[in-house]
Request: fold
Amino acid sequence: MAAGERSWEEIRKDFPVLDQEVNGRKLIYFDNAATSQKPLSVIEAMTCYYEHDNANVHRGLHELSNRATAGYEGARARLAAYIGAQEEEIIFTRGTTESINLVARAWGEEYLKAGDVVLLTEMEHHSNIVPWQMLAQRRGVKLRFIPITPEGTLDLTNLDQLLEGVKLFSFVHISNSLGTINPAAELVRRAKAAGATVLVDAAQSAGHLPLDVKELGCDFLALSGHKMCGPTGIGLLYGRREILDAMPPFHGGGEMISTVTFEGSQYKPSPYRFEAGTPAIAEAIGLAAAAEYIDGIGRARIWEHDQLLAREGLAVLSQIPGIRILGPLDHRAGLVAFTLQSAHAHDVVSMADQEGLALRGGHHCTQPLLRKLGVPASSRASFAFYNTIEEIHRMGEILKKVQAFFA
Amino acid sequence: MNLEELYQEVILDHSKRPRNFGPLPDATVTVRGDNPSCGDEIELSLKLNGDQIEDVKFTGQGCAICMASASLLTLKVKKKDKAQAETLLTGFKDMLTAPEAPESNEALGDLQIFSAVRRFPQRVKCATLSWRALEQALEAHAGSVTTEEPAS
Ligand SMILES: Cc1ncc(COP(=O)(O)O)c(C=O)c1O
Reply:
Protein backbone atom coordinates (compact mmCIF):
# COMPACT_ATOMS: atom_id res chain seq x y z
CA MET A 1 0.00 0.00 0.00
CA ALA A 2 1.50 3.29 -1.07
CA ALA A 3 1.47 6.34 1.19
CA GLY A 4 -1.94 8.00 1.39
CA GLU A 5 -3.77 4.95 0.04
CA ARG A 6 -6.74 3.62 1.96
CA SER A 7 -6.33 0.04 3.13
CA TRP A 8 -8.50 -2.71 1.65
CA GLU A 9 -9.99 -3.19 5.08
CA GLU A 10 -11.12 0.40 5.12
CA ILE A 11 -12.38 0.19 1.53
CA ARG A 12 -14.49 -2.84 2.40
CA LYS A 13 -16.42 -0.71 4.90
CA ASP A 14 -17.75 1.37 2.01
CA PHE A 15 -20.06 -1.57 1.19
CA PRO A 16 -22.85 -1.74 3.75
CA VAL A 17 -24.34 -4.96 2.36
CA LEU A 18 -21.21 -6.95 3.18
CA ASP A 19 -21.67 -6.44 6.88
CA GLN A 20 -24.35 -9.01 7.63
CA GLU A 21 -25.00 -12.58 8.59
CA VAL A 22 -26.66 -15.05 6.26
CA ASN A 23 -28.06 -18.25 7.73
CA GLY A 24 -26.36 -17.35 10.98
CA ARG A 25 -22.88 -17.03 9.42
CA LYS A 26 -20.87 -14.05 8.31
CA LEU A 27 -21.73 -13.38 4.68
CA ILE A 28 -19.02 -14.20 2.15
CA TYR A 29 -20.12 -12.71 -1.14
CA PHE A 30 -18.37 -14.53 -3.97
CA ASP A 31 -20.91 -13.93 -6.72
CA ASN A 32 -19.32 -10.75 -7.99
CA ALA A 33 -19.22 -11.87 -11.61
CA ALA A 34 -23.02 -12.00 -11.55
CA THR A 35 -23.28 -8.58 -9.98
CA SER A 36 -20.98 -6.57 -7.75
CA GLN A 37 -21.97 -4.83 -4.54
CA LYS A 38 -22.45 -1.06 -4.37
CA PRO A 39 -20.46 1.38 -2.25
CA LEU A 40 -22.21 4.09 -0.24
CA SER A 41 -21.05 6.79 -2.64
CA VAL A 42 -23.08 5.20 -5.45
CA ILE A 43 -26.14 4.70 -3.27
CA GLU A 44 -25.89 8.26 -2.03
CA ALA A 45 -25.40 9.77 -5.48
CA MET A 46 -28.66 8.19 -6.60
CA THR A 47 -30.54 9.13 -3.44
CA CYS A 48 -29.22 12.67 -3.65
CA TYR A 49 -30.40 12.98 -7.24
CA TYR A 50 -33.90 11.83 -6.27
CA GLU A 51 -34.00 14.01 -3.18
CA HIS A 52 -32.83 17.20 -4.86
CA ASP A 53 -32.69 17.21 -8.64
CA ASN A 54 -35.16 14.75 -10.14
CA ALA A 55 -36.68 15.87 -13.44
CA ASN A 56 -36.68 14.72 -17.04
CA VAL A 57 -33.64 15.47 -19.14
CA HIS A 58 -33.20 17.63 -22.22
CA ARG A 59 -36.81 18.77 -22.31
CA GLY A 60 -37.46 21.08 -19.42
CA LEU A 61 -36.56 24.72 -19.39
CA HIS A 62 -36.71 24.78 -15.63
CA GLU A 63 -33.98 24.53 -13.04
CA LEU A 64 -34.50 20.91 -12.01
CA SER A 65 -34.49 19.75 -15.59
CA ASN A 66 -31.25 21.64 -16.14
CA ARG A 67 -29.74 19.90 -13.15
CA ALA A 68 -30.93 16.48 -14.24
CA THR A 69 -29.55 17.09 -17.73
CA ALA A 70 -26.25 18.26 -16.30
CA GLY A 71 -26.09 15.16 -14.09
CA TYR A 72 -26.92 12.82 -16.95
CA GLU A 73 -24.57 14.42 -19.46
CA GLY A 74 -21.92 14.73 -16.79
CA ALA A 75 -22.24 10.99 -16.30
CA ARG A 76 -21.66 10.47 -20.00
CA ALA A 77 -18.48 12.55 -19.81
CA ARG A 78 -17.33 10.63 -16.75
CA LEU A 79 -17.83 7.28 -18.45
CA ALA A 80 -16.15 8.53 -21.62
CA ALA A 81 -13.10 9.41 -19.52
CA TYR A 82 -13.31 6.02 -17.81
CA ILE A 83 -12.68 4.17 -21.07
CA GLY A 84 -10.74 6.80 -23.01
CA ALA A 85 -13.56 7.74 -25.39
CA GLN A 86 -15.23 10.98 -26.46
CA GLU A 87 -18.62 11.88 -24.98
CA GLU A 88 -20.33 11.49 -28.35
CA GLU A 89 -19.15 7.90 -28.44
CA ILE A 90 -20.97 6.83 -25.27
CA ILE A 91 -24.50 5.46 -25.67
CA PHE A 92 -26.25 4.63 -22.42
CA THR A 93 -28.05 1.29 -22.56
CA ARG A 94 -29.48 -1.10 -19.99
CA GLY A 95 -26.24 -3.06 -20.00
CA THR A 96 -24.00 -5.33 -22.04
CA THR A 97 -26.90 -7.36 -23.39
CA GLU A 98 -28.75 -4.35 -24.75
CA SER A 99 -25.51 -2.89 -26.11
CA ILE A 100 -24.80 -6.00 -28.15
CA ASN A 101 -28.40 -6.16 -29.34
CA LEU A 102 -28.12 -2.53 -30.40
CA VAL A 103 -25.11 -3.34 -32.59
CA ALA A 104 -26.77 -6.45 -34.02
CA ARG A 105 -29.91 -4.50 -34.88
CA ALA A 106 -28.79 -1.04 -35.86
CA TRP A 107 -25.38 -1.83 -37.33
CA GLY A 108 -25.90 -5.46 -38.31
CA GLU A 109 -29.13 -4.94 -40.22
CA GLU A 110 -27.65 -1.98 -42.10
CA TYR A 111 -24.30 -3.45 -43.05
CA LEU A 112 -24.60 -7.23 -43.08
CA LYS A 113 -26.24 -9.25 -45.80
CA ALA A 114 -26.87 -12.92 -46.44
CA GLY A 115 -23.66 -14.95 -46.43
CA ASP A 116 -21.62 -12.38 -44.48
CA VAL A 117 -19.67 -13.88 -41.61
CA VAL A 118 -19.86 -12.90 -37.94
CA LEU A 119 -16.99 -14.36 -35.94
CA LEU A 120 -17.52 -15.17 -32.26
CA THR A 121 -15.69 -17.46 -29.84
CA GLU A 122 -16.77 -20.63 -28.09
CA MET A 123 -16.51 -18.92 -24.71
CA GLU A 124 -19.15 -16.25 -25.31
CA HIS A 125 -21.89 -15.41 -22.88
CA HIS A 126 -25.37 -16.05 -24.29
CA SER A 127 -25.71 -12.29 -24.75
CA ASN A 128 -22.99 -12.42 -27.39
CA ILE A 129 -24.45 -15.43 -29.16
CA VAL A 130 -28.23 -15.10 -29.24
CA PRO A 131 -28.44 -11.62 -30.83
CA TRP A 132 -26.25 -12.90 -33.67
CA GLN A 133 -28.32 -16.05 -34.07
CA MET A 134 -31.39 -13.83 -34.32
CA LEU A 135 -29.63 -11.76 -36.96
CA ALA A 136 -28.62 -14.94 -38.76
CA GLN A 137 -32.28 -15.93 -38.91
CA ARG A 138 -33.42 -12.55 -40.17
CA ARG A 139 -30.58 -11.79 -42.54
CA GLY A 140 -28.93 -15.09 -43.36
CA VAL A 141 -25.53 -14.09 -41.98
CA LYS A 142 -23.22 -16.96 -41.06
CA LEU A 143 -21.79 -17.47 -37.58
CA ARG A 144 -18.30 -18.84 -37.03
CA PHE A 145 -16.65 -19.61 -33.70
CA ILE A 146 -13.02 -19.52 -32.61
CA PRO A 147 -12.53 -22.84 -30.78
CA ILE A 148 -11.07 -23.17 -27.31
CA THR A 149 -8.11 -25.29 -26.27
CA PRO A 150 -8.49 -27.98 -23.58
CA GLU A 151 -6.94 -25.47 -21.13
CA GLY A 152 -9.74 -23.03 -21.82
CA THR A 153 -7.93 -20.38 -23.84
CA LEU A 154 -8.75 -19.36 -27.40
CA ASP A 155 -7.11 -21.58 -29.98
CA LEU A 156 -5.64 -18.94 -32.27
CA THR A 157 -3.67 -21.33 -34.47
CA ASN A 158 -5.95 -20.76 -37.44
CA LEU A 159 -7.00 -17.22 -36.64
CA ASP A 160 -6.03 -15.84 -40.03
CA GLN A 161 -8.17 -18.43 -41.76
CA LEU A 162 -11.02 -17.90 -39.33
CA LEU A 163 -10.89 -14.16 -40.02
CA GLU A 164 -11.23 -14.61 -43.75
CA GLY A 165 -14.27 -12.78 -45.05
CA VAL A 166 -15.35 -11.77 -41.54
CA LYS A 167 -17.43 -8.59 -41.39
CA LEU A 168 -17.81 -8.45 -37.63
CA PHE A 169 -15.78 -10.03 -34.86
CA SER A 170 -17.30 -9.92 -31.39
CA PHE A 171 -15.52 -11.46 -28.42
CA VAL A 172 -15.44 -11.52 -24.67
CA HIS A 173 -12.53 -9.76 -22.96
CA ILE A 174 -12.66 -11.84 -19.75
CA SER A 175 -14.66 -15.06 -19.78
CA ASN A 176 -17.25 -15.21 -17.02
CA SER A 177 -17.06 -19.02 -16.91
CA LEU A 178 -13.37 -19.72 -17.45
CA GLY A 179 -11.71 -16.61 -16.07
CA THR A 180 -9.64 -16.52 -19.25
CA ILE A 181 -8.22 -13.11 -20.11
CA ASN A 182 -8.25 -12.86 -23.86
CA PRO A 183 -5.46 -10.92 -25.60
CA ALA A 184 -7.88 -8.17 -26.59
CA ALA A 185 -5.47 -5.71 -28.20
CA GLU A 186 -3.87 -8.42 -30.33
CA LEU A 187 -7.24 -9.85 -31.36
CA VAL A 188 -8.51 -6.41 -32.33
CA ARG A 189 -5.35 -5.63 -34.28
CA ARG A 190 -5.50 -8.84 -36.29
CA ALA A 191 -9.23 -8.59 -36.94
CA LYS A 192 -8.91 -4.97 -38.07
CA ALA A 193 -6.06 -5.94 -40.36
CA ALA A 194 -8.39 -8.52 -41.89
CA GLY A 195 -10.96 -5.80 -42.48
CA ALA A 196 -13.45 -6.73 -39.74
CA THR A 197 -15.39 -4.41 -37.47
CA VAL A 198 -14.71 -5.41 -33.86
CA LEU A 199 -16.87 -5.46 -30.72
CA VAL A 200 -15.42 -6.20 -27.29
CA ASP A 201 -17.63 -7.54 -24.47
CA ALA A 202 -16.04 -5.89 -21.46
CA ALA A 203 -18.72 -6.94 -18.95
CA GLN A 204 -16.21 -8.79 -16.76
CA SER A 205 -13.24 -6.51 -17.25
CA ALA A 206 -14.66 -3.00 -16.96
CA GLY A 207 -14.62 -2.88 -13.17
CA HIS A 208 -11.38 -4.74 -12.74
CA LEU A 209 -8.65 -3.42 -15.01
CA PRO A 210 -7.69 -0.28 -16.89
CA LEU A 211 -9.50 -0.04 -20.24
CA ASP A 212 -8.79 2.38 -23.04
CA VAL A 213 -10.77 1.97 -26.23
CA LYS A 214 -8.27 3.95 -28.29
CA GLU A 215 -5.45 1.71 -27.12
CA LEU A 216 -7.56 -1.38 -27.78
CA GLY A 217 -8.53 -0.01 -31.15
CA CYS A 218 -11.97 -1.64 -31.12
CA ASP A 219 -14.99 -0.23 -32.94
CA PHE A 220 -17.52 -1.11 -30.26
CA LEU A 221 -17.25 -1.98 -26.58
CA ALA A 222 -20.06 -3.05 -24.27
CA LEU A 223 -20.21 -3.01 -20.48
CA SER A 224 -22.69 -3.30 -17.59
CA GLY A 225 -22.78 -0.82 -14.72
CA HIS A 226 -23.93 -3.36 -12.15
CA LYS A 227 -20.78 -5.43 -12.53
CA MET A 228 -18.57 -2.44 -11.72
CA CYS A 229 -20.12 -1.25 -8.47
CA GLY A 230 -22.86 0.69 -10.26
CA PRO A 231 -26.63 0.20 -10.30
CA THR A 232 -28.55 -2.32 -12.40
CA GLY A 233 -30.43 -1.10 -15.46
CA ILE A 234 -27.55 0.91 -16.89
CA GLY A 235 -24.54 0.16 -19.02
CA LEU A 236 -23.05 1.51 -22.15
CA LEU A 237 -22.08 0.93 -25.68
CA TYR A 238 -18.99 2.67 -26.90
CA GLY A 239 -18.98 3.15 -30.67
CA ARG A 240 -16.24 4.77 -32.70
CA ARG A 241 -17.49 8.17 -33.77
CA GLU A 242 -17.37 7.65 -37.56
CA ILE A 243 -19.33 4.45 -37.19
CA LEU A 244 -22.01 5.90 -34.93
CA ASP A 245 -22.44 8.95 -37.15
CA ALA A 246 -23.27 6.73 -40.11
CA MET A 247 -25.35 4.18 -38.23
CA PRO A 248 -29.17 4.20 -38.36
CA PRO A 249 -31.15 4.42 -35.10
CA PHE A 250 -32.13 1.51 -32.84
CA HIS A 251 -35.41 2.34 -31.09
CA GLY A 252 -37.67 5.09 -32.32
CA GLY A 253 -39.35 7.64 -30.07
CA GLY A 254 -38.76 10.83 -28.17
CA GLU A 255 -35.29 12.18 -27.40
CA MET A 256 -33.76 10.67 -30.54
CA ILE A 257 -35.31 12.97 -33.13
CA SER A 258 -34.70 16.55 -34.15
CA THR A 259 -37.94 17.08 -36.10
CA VAL A 260 -40.96 14.91 -36.57
CA THR A 261 -43.73 15.44 -39.09
CA PHE A 262 -46.53 13.07 -39.93
CA GLU A 263 -44.59 12.18 -43.05
CA GLY A 264 -41.28 11.37 -41.43
CA SER A 265 -38.59 12.29 -38.93
CA GLN A 266 -35.10 13.59 -38.77
CA TYR A 267 -32.83 11.93 -36.29
CA LYS A 268 -30.49 13.59 -33.86
CA PRO A 269 -26.78 12.97 -34.14
CA SER A 270 -25.19 10.25 -32.04
CA PRO A 271 -25.30 9.39 -29.22
CA TYR A 272 -28.85 10.81 -28.81
CA ARG A 273 -30.08 9.02 -31.90
CA PHE A 274 -29.59 5.77 -30.02
CA GLU A 275 -31.25 6.80 -26.78
CA ALA A 276 -34.99 6.89 -27.44
CA GLY A 277 -37.29 7.74 -24.57
CA THR A 278 -36.59 8.90 -21.04
CA PRO A 279 -33.28 7.38 -20.03
CA ALA A 280 -32.22 5.84 -16.71
CA ILE A 281 -31.08 9.16 -15.25
CA ALA A 282 -30.45 8.22 -11.64
CA GLU A 283 -28.72 5.05 -12.79
CA ALA A 284 -26.42 6.98 -15.12
CA ILE A 285 -25.54 9.27 -12.22
CA GLY A 286 -24.97 6.22 -10.03
CA LEU A 287 -22.74 4.66 -12.68
CA ALA A 288 -20.66 7.83 -12.89
CA ALA A 289 -20.26 7.69 -9.12
CA ALA A 290 -19.12 4.08 -9.49
CA ALA A 291 -16.52 5.04 -12.10
CA GLU A 292 -15.34 7.81 -9.80
CA TYR A 293 -15.17 5.40 -6.89
CA ILE A 294 -13.23 2.75 -8.77
CA ASP A 295 -10.77 5.24 -10.17
CA GLY A 296 -10.42 6.68 -6.68
CA ILE A 297 -8.94 3.35 -5.66
CA GLY A 298 -7.23 2.91 -9.01
CA ARG A 299 -7.85 0.14 -11.49
CA ALA A 300 -4.20 -0.87 -11.62
CA ARG A 301 -4.29 -1.39 -7.86
CA ILE A 302 -7.63 -3.22 -8.07
CA TRP A 303 -6.26 -5.54 -10.75
CA GLU A 304 -3.20 -6.32 -8.67
CA HIS A 305 -5.42 -7.23 -5.72
CA ASP A 306 -7.70 -9.27 -8.02
CA GLN A 307 -4.68 -11.23 -9.13
CA LEU A 308 -3.73 -11.95 -5.54
CA LEU A 309 -7.26 -13.19 -4.80
CA ALA A 310 -7.26 -15.23 -8.02
CA ARG A 311 -4.01 -16.99 -7.13
CA GLU A 312 -5.12 -17.67 -3.57
CA GLY A 313 -8.54 -18.83 -4.72
CA LEU A 314 -6.99 -21.23 -7.17
CA ALA A 315 -4.52 -22.53 -4.59
CA VAL A 316 -7.23 -23.11 -1.99
CA LEU A 317 -9.63 -24.76 -4.41
CA SER A 318 -6.92 -27.04 -5.81
CA GLN A 319 -6.65 -28.60 -2.34
CA ILE A 320 -10.18 -29.96 -2.44
CA PRO A 321 -10.37 -33.66 -3.29
CA GLY A 322 -12.10 -34.48 -6.56
CA ILE A 323 -12.23 -30.91 -7.79
CA ARG A 324 -11.99 -30.00 -11.46
CA ILE A 325 -11.14 -26.40 -12.13
CA LEU A 326 -12.41 -24.92 -15.38
CA GLY A 327 -10.21 -22.61 -17.38
CA PRO A 328 -6.52 -21.84 -17.39
CA LEU A 329 -4.38 -22.36 -14.30
CA ASP A 330 -2.43 -19.16 -14.68
CA HIS A 331 -2.96 -15.73 -16.20
CA ARG A 332 -6.60 -15.62 -15.24
CA ALA A 333 -9.10 -13.25 -13.71
CA GLY A 334 -10.45 -13.40 -10.16
CA LEU A 335 -13.16 -15.93 -10.79
CA VAL A 336 -12.94 -19.70 -10.62
CA ALA A 337 -15.57 -22.13 -11.82
CA PHE A 338 -15.26 -25.74 -10.76
CA THR A 339 -17.01 -29.06 -10.40
CA LEU A 340 -16.76 -31.55 -7.57
CA GLN A 341 -16.77 -35.21 -8.39
CA SER A 342 -19.06 -36.09 -5.51
CA ALA A 343 -21.58 -33.27 -5.67
CA HIS A 344 -23.62 -31.51 -8.30
CA ALA A 345 -23.20 -27.74 -8.55
CA HIS A 346 -26.70 -27.08 -7.19
CA ASP A 347 -26.02 -29.12 -4.10
CA VAL A 348 -22.67 -27.40 -3.59
CA VAL A 349 -24.18 -23.95 -3.90
CA SER A 350 -27.14 -24.73 -1.62
CA MET A 351 -24.90 -26.20 1.05
CA ALA A 352 -22.45 -23.30 0.78
CA ASP A 353 -25.35 -20.90 1.20
CA GLN A 354 -26.18 -22.58 4.49
CA GLU A 355 -22.73 -21.43 5.62
CA GLY A 356 -23.25 -17.86 4.43
CA LEU A 357 -21.13 -18.37 1.33
CA ALA A 358 -22.71 -16.99 -1.86
CA LEU A 359 -21.56 -18.86 -4.97
CA ARG A 360 -23.14 -19.21 -8.37
CA GLY A 361 -24.18 -22.61 -9.70
CA GLY A 362 -25.33 -23.59 -13.16
CA HIS A 363 -24.13 -22.85 -16.65
CA HIS A 364 -23.35 -19.15 -16.09
CA CYS A 365 -25.12 -18.27 -19.34
CA THR A 366 -22.50 -20.15 -21.36
CA GLN A 367 -24.38 -23.37 -22.17
CA PRO A 368 -22.55 -24.16 -25.42
CA LEU A 369 -19.18 -23.72 -23.68
CA LEU A 370 -20.05 -26.03 -20.78
CA ARG A 371 -21.44 -28.59 -23.18
CA LYS A 372 -18.17 -28.54 -25.07
CA LEU A 373 -16.28 -29.01 -21.79
CA GLY A 374 -18.57 -31.91 -20.95
CA VAL A 375 -19.79 -30.21 -17.79
CA PRO A 376 -23.56 -30.10 -17.19
CA ALA A 377 -23.21 -27.45 -14.50
CA SER A 378 -20.48 -25.88 -12.44
CA SER A 379 -20.09 -23.82 -9.28
CA ARG A 380 -18.31 -20.50 -9.45
CA ALA A 381 -16.55 -18.29 -6.93
CA SER A 382 -15.91 -14.79 -8.24
CA PHE A 383 -14.01 -12.18 -6.27
CA ALA A 384 -13.96 -8.41 -6.00
CA PHE A 385 -11.45 -6.06 -4.40
CA TYR A 386 -13.48 -5.90 -1.18
CA ASN A 387 -13.05 -9.64 -0.65
CA THR A 388 -10.32 -10.93 1.61
CA ILE A 389 -7.83 -13.76 1.78
CA GLU A 390 -9.54 -14.91 5.01
CA GLU A 391 -12.81 -15.26 3.12
CA ILE A 392 -11.07 -17.40 0.53
CA HIS A 393 -9.66 -19.64 3.26
CA ARG A 394 -13.08 -19.91 4.83
CA MET A 395 -14.47 -20.94 1.44
CA GLY A 396 -11.85 -23.68 1.33
CA GLU A 397 -13.03 -25.04 4.69
CA ILE A 398 -16.68 -24.89 3.68
CA LEU A 399 -16.10 -26.65 0.38
CA LYS A 400 -14.00 -29.35 1.99
CA LYS A 401 -16.88 -30.00 4.34
CA VAL A 402 -19.36 -30.09 1.45
CA GLN A 403 -17.11 -32.43 -0.50
CA ALA A 404 -16.78 -34.80 2.45
CA PHE A 405 -20.51 -34.68 3.07
CA PHE A 406 -21.37 -35.89 -0.42
CA ALA A 407 -18.39 -38.21 -0.88
CA MET B 1 -35.42 -28.87 9.14
CA ASN B 2 -32.32 -27.36 7.66
CA LEU B 3 -30.90 -28.35 4.34
CA GLU B 4 -28.19 -30.53 5.79
CA GLU B 5 -30.77 -32.58 7.68
CA LEU B 6 -32.85 -32.83 4.57
CA TYR B 7 -29.93 -34.23 2.64
CA GLN B 8 -28.97 -36.53 5.45
CA GLU B 9 -32.38 -38.06 6.02
CA VAL B 10 -32.93 -39.61 2.68
CA ILE B 11 -31.67 -37.61 -0.20
CA LEU B 12 -28.06 -38.64 0.04
CA ASP B 13 -28.96 -42.30 0.21
CA HIS B 14 -31.20 -42.13 -2.85
CA SER B 15 -28.95 -39.89 -4.90
CA LYS B 16 -25.93 -42.06 -4.31
CA ARG B 17 -27.81 -45.31 -4.83
CA PRO B 18 -30.81 -44.42 -6.94
CA ARG B 19 -33.44 -47.17 -7.02
CA ASN B 20 -34.92 -48.38 -10.29
CA PHE B 21 -32.11 -46.69 -12.15
CA GLY B 22 -31.43 -47.88 -15.67
CA PRO B 23 -33.15 -48.44 -18.98
CA LEU B 24 -36.54 -50.13 -19.26
CA PRO B 25 -36.44 -52.06 -22.54
CA ASP B 26 -40.14 -52.89 -22.66
CA ALA B 27 -41.32 -49.41 -21.73
CA THR B 28 -44.59 -48.28 -23.23
CA VAL B 29 -43.89 -44.61 -22.69
CA THR B 30 -40.69 -42.63 -22.11
CA VAL B 31 -40.47 -38.96 -21.24
CA ARG B 32 -37.31 -36.89 -21.12
CA GLY B 33 -37.20 -34.10 -18.58
CA ASP B 34 -34.62 -31.40 -18.48
CA ASN B 35 -33.82 -28.41 -16.35
CA PRO B 36 -31.73 -26.23 -18.63
CA SER B 37 -30.86 -23.74 -15.92
CA CYS B 38 -28.71 -26.30 -14.14
CA GLY B 39 -28.24 -29.18 -16.51
CA ASP B 40 -30.41 -31.80 -14.78
CA GLU B 41 -31.51 -34.35 -17.36
CA ILE B 42 -33.52 -37.43 -16.66
CA GLU B 43 -35.50 -39.91 -18.67
CA LEU B 44 -38.46 -41.63 -17.04
CA SER B 45 -39.86 -44.80 -18.58
CA LEU B 46 -43.12 -46.50 -17.67
CA LYS B 47 -44.47 -49.86 -18.63
CA LEU B 48 -48.20 -49.39 -18.61
CA ASN B 49 -50.63 -52.24 -18.77
CA GLY B 50 -54.02 -50.65 -19.14
CA ASP B 51 -54.28 -48.46 -16.09
CA GLN B 52 -51.61 -50.30 -14.21
CA ILE B 53 -47.99 -49.10 -13.88
CA GLU B 54 -46.28 -52.44 -14.10
CA ASP B 55 -42.77 -51.10 -14.07
CA VAL B 56 -40.96 -47.78 -13.93
CA LYS B 57 -37.31 -46.84 -14.29
CA PHE B 58 -35.24 -43.79 -14.89
CA THR B 59 -31.84 -42.79 -16.22
CA GLY B 60 -29.98 -39.51 -16.35
CA GLN B 61 -27.99 -37.22 -14.20
CA GLY B 62 -28.67 -34.30 -11.97
CA CYS B 63 -28.26 -32.83 -8.54
CA ALA B 64 -28.91 -34.89 -5.42
CA ILE B 65 -32.42 -33.50 -4.93
CA CYS B 66 -33.41 -34.26 -8.51
CA MET B 67 -31.99 -37.79 -8.42
CA ALA B 68 -33.45 -38.63 -5.02
CA SER B 69 -36.85 -37.33 -6.00
CA ALA B 70 -36.85 -39.48 -9.15
CA SER B 71 -35.66 -42.51 -7.20
CA LEU B 72 -38.41 -42.16 -4.60
CA LEU B 73 -40.95 -41.52 -7.31
CA THR B 74 -40.24 -44.90 -8.89
CA LEU B 75 -40.64 -46.67 -5.55
CA LYS B 76 -43.92 -44.90 -4.93
CA VAL B 77 -45.68 -45.39 -8.22
CA LYS B 78 -44.56 -48.88 -9.19
CA LYS B 79 -47.50 -51.32 -9.26
CA LYS B 80 -49.95 -48.49 -8.69
CA ASP B 81 -52.74 -47.61 -11.03
CA LYS B 82 -52.90 -44.33 -12.87
CA ALA B 83 -55.42 -42.76 -10.50
CA GLN B 84 -53.26 -43.53 -7.47
CA ALA B 85 -50.18 -42.15 -9.22
CA GLU B 86 -52.07 -39.01 -10.14
CA THR B 87 -53.10 -38.50 -6.53
CA LEU B 88 -49.48 -38.76 -5.45
CA LEU B 89 -48.45 -36.42 -8.19
CA THR B 90 -50.94 -33.78 -7.19
CA GLY B 91 -50.02 -34.19 -3.54
CA PHE B 92 -46.33 -33.84 -4.28
CA LYS B 93 -46.72 -30.80 -6.47
CA ASP B 94 -49.02 -29.09 -3.98
CA MET B 95 -46.58 -29.78 -1.18
CA LEU B 96 -43.90 -27.87 -3.07
CA THR B 97 -45.71 -25.26 -5.09
CA ALA B 98 -49.19 -24.54 -3.71
CA PRO B 99 -49.37 -20.93 -2.48
CA GLU B 100 -50.15 -22.19 1.02
CA ALA B 101 -48.18 -25.14 2.30
CA PRO B 102 -50.75 -27.94 2.69
CA GLU B 103 -51.22 -29.82 5.95
CA SER B 104 -49.06 -32.90 6.13
CA ASN B 105 -50.17 -35.51 3.63
CA GLU B 106 -49.77 -39.00 5.06
CA ALA B 107 -50.30 -40.62 1.68
CA LEU B 108 -47.01 -39.17 0.50
CA GLY B 109 -45.05 -41.09 3.12
CA ASP B 110 -41.27 -40.65 2.64
CA LEU B 111 -41.90 -38.05 0.01
CA GLN B 112 -42.90 -35.61 2.72
CA ILE B 113 -39.23 -35.09 3.39
CA PHE B 114 -39.21 -32.91 0.29
CA SER B 115 -41.55 -30.39 1.88
CA ALA B 116 -38.38 -28.71 3.19
CA VAL B 117 -37.45 -27.84 -0.39
CA ARG B 118 -40.30 -25.30 -0.38
CA ARG B 119 -38.02 -22.91 1.43
CA PHE B 120 -35.42 -23.07 -1.35
CA PRO B 121 -37.30 -21.78 -4.36
CA GLN B 122 -34.35 -22.35 -6.69
CA ARG B 123 -34.45 -26.04 -5.87
CA VAL B 124 -38.16 -26.69 -6.36
CA LYS B 125 -37.54 -27.30 -10.05
CA CYS B 126 -34.97 -29.96 -9.17
CA ALA B 127 -37.43 -31.82 -6.95
CA THR B 128 -40.34 -31.64 -9.38
CA LEU B 129 -38.56 -32.53 -12.63
CA SER B 130 -39.25 -36.26 -12.51
CA TRP B 131 -42.82 -35.60 -11.42
CA ARG B 132 -43.44 -33.38 -14.40
CA ALA B 133 -42.13 -36.20 -16.57
CA LEU B 134 -44.49 -38.60 -14.81
CA GLU B 135 -47.41 -36.27 -15.40
CA GLN B 136 -46.78 -36.33 -19.11
CA ALA B 137 -46.15 -40.07 -19.16
CA LEU B 138 -49.47 -40.73 -17.45
CA GLU B 139 -51.19 -38.92 -20.25
CA ALA B 140 -49.32 -41.51 -22.34
CA HIS B 141 -47.51 -38.83 -24.26
CA ALA B 142 -43.96 -39.73 -24.98
CA GLY B 143 -41.81 -36.68 -25.46
CA SER B 144 -40.06 -34.22 -23.27
CA VAL B 145 -40.75 -31.75 -20.51
CA THR B 146 -38.68 -28.88 -19.31
CA THR B 147 -38.68 -26.76 -16.21
CA GLU B 148 -38.63 -23.65 -18.39
CA GLU B 149 -41.97 -22.34 -19.59
CA PRO B 150 -41.87 -22.35 -23.38
CA ALA B 151 -43.01 -19.21 -25.18
CA SER B 152 -46.49 -19.77 -26.48
C1 LIG C 1 -19.05 -11.89 -20.18
C2 LIG C 1 -20.44 -11.36 -20.03
N1 LIG C 1 -21.06 -10.79 -21.07
C3 LIG C 1 -22.29 -10.29 -20.98
C4 LIG C 1 -23.01 -10.34 -19.82
C5 LIG C 1 -24.39 -9.79 -19.77
O1 LIG C 1 -24.47 -8.69 -18.96
P1 LIG C 1 -25.86 -8.05 -18.56
O2 LIG C 1 -26.72 -9.16 -18.05
O3 LIG C 1 -25.53 -7.05 -17.53
O4 LIG C 1 -26.43 -7.44 -19.80
C6 LIG C 1 -22.42 -10.94 -18.70
C7 LIG C 1 -23.17 -11.03 -17.43
O5 LIG C 1 -23.32 -12.02 -16.82
C8 LIG C 1 -21.10 -11.45 -18.81
O6 LIG C 1 -20.51 -12.04 -17.77
Summary: The pocket of pyridoxal-5'-phosphate is lined by residues A 95-97, 125, 127, 172, 176, 201, 203-204, 224, 365 (CB under 6 Å).
